[in-house]
Specification:
Elements lengths: L2 H13 L6 H8 L3 H14 L4 E4 L4 E4 L12 H16 L6 H14 L22 H13 L1 E8 L5 E14 L2 E8 L4 E6 L3 E10 L24 E7 L1 H7 L9 E5 L2 E8 L2 H9 L5 E5 L1 H19 L1
Antiparallel strand pairs: 1-2, 3-4, 3-7, 4-5, 5-6, 8-10, 8-11, 9-10
Length: about 300
């Protein structure tokens, strides 16, 4: 049993007026007296519980009956647990016994006798690709142990290749899971969509490539296509798009300028694909101003789209 469970047991017994002591913890959880004394000290000194000892009743009580544990009946914690559970289900990880056990234990500890977390929250991601549970376990193990990983990878075009990588970081983006790793086949950093990995196995070799503090490869540019920015894109939004975008956050280094009814956004970009999709989603209410090459490329894509509908 974890210290969280023991602390919660002690707290609820005190609240109920049962005057528990270290012997109560020893008997309930089969721990040593020394561990029980450390649990009481943690509740008093770290969680700042107003503990006092009643010698006549041989147990602890609170001098302030309004005291609550920091995590007790916390709406933000309910939301967090719900989000984690939903993400697990929609990325193919719902079958992991550890996740379900953790959810049930936390539910029982923090929200006893209350509604299930799933009854309180609905989250939805689209365009999901399921992650194989064995793959997810291997990825986590390789990151934890800093061991090289080998797997088969299916690209977006359907091409299959064998990869050996040094795992660097697990990435969650828009509800999808990615692995940032040094790819020995390509000789550089790559992001691998976990839903496209199969046949994974840990290797004996340790990783030669790691992320160091201050490395901004994941955060330097907009979107999932990472790397050093190639340019700063400038986009003009009008109409409904302007009203929406002026309150949105796309990137830490974005700049937004409001001129009348228009919004001008500038942000760093490493790859054309996602920024083009973002602009297209706003239709005629969004237009790329710069760079000229990106503007021309998007204009060509719009002409090809229009030709399809004119047939």
């Amino acid at each position: 049993m974890s210290i969280l469970e023991r602390i919660y047991f002690l707290h609820t017994r005190i609240q109920a007026g049962h005057y528990p002591n270290t012997g109560s913890l020893v008997h309930e959880f089969e721990i040593s007296p020394a561990t029980a004394h450390r649990d009481v000290a943690y509740l008093r000194d770290r969680l700042l519980a107003p503990l006092a000892f009643d010698r006549r009743r041989n147990g602890y009580y609170y001098t302030d009956t309004s005291f609550h544990l920091p995590f007790e009946n916390s709406p933000p914690l309910v939301l967090l647990l719900g989000l984690l559970g939903t993400m697990a289900r929609q990325t193919g990880l719902a079958g992991l016994a550890e996740l379900e056990e953790m959810k049930q234990r936390i539910q029982g500890l923090i929200f006893p006798g209350q509604r299930e977390i799933d009854d309180l929250l609905h989250c939805e991601w689209i365009e999901m690709e399921q992650v194989d549970q064995a793959v997810f376990r291997d990825v986590l193990a390789s990151l934890r142990e800093q061991k090289r990983l080998r797997f088969r990878y299916r690209s977006g075009t359907g091409k299959i290749s064998e990869r050996t990588v040094d795992p660097m970081k697990l990435v969650s983006y828009q509800g999808r899971w990615y692995l940032l790793a040094w790819c020995h086949l390509r000789g550089g950093r790559r992001l691998f969509h976990l839903g496209r990995i199969a046949g994974s196995s840990l290797l004996a070799g340790t990783c030669d490539h790691r992320l160091v503090p201050g490395d901004d490869w994941l955060t330097a540019s907009f979107g999932i296509f990472k790397g050093p920015p190639r340019y700063r894109a400038t986009i003009r939004f009008t109409g409904k798009a302007a009203r929406i975008v002026r309150h949105q956050f796309w990137h830490a280094q974005q700049e937004i300028r409001v001129t009348g009814t228009e919004v001008i956004m500038t942000l760093p970009v490493a790859d054309d694909r996602e920024i083009m999709m973002k602009v297209l989603q706003f239709g005629a209410d969004a237009m790329i101003i710069a760079p000229g090459e990106l503007r021309q490329r998007l204009a060509g894509e719009i002409r090809r789209m229009a030709a399809l509908y004119e047939k």
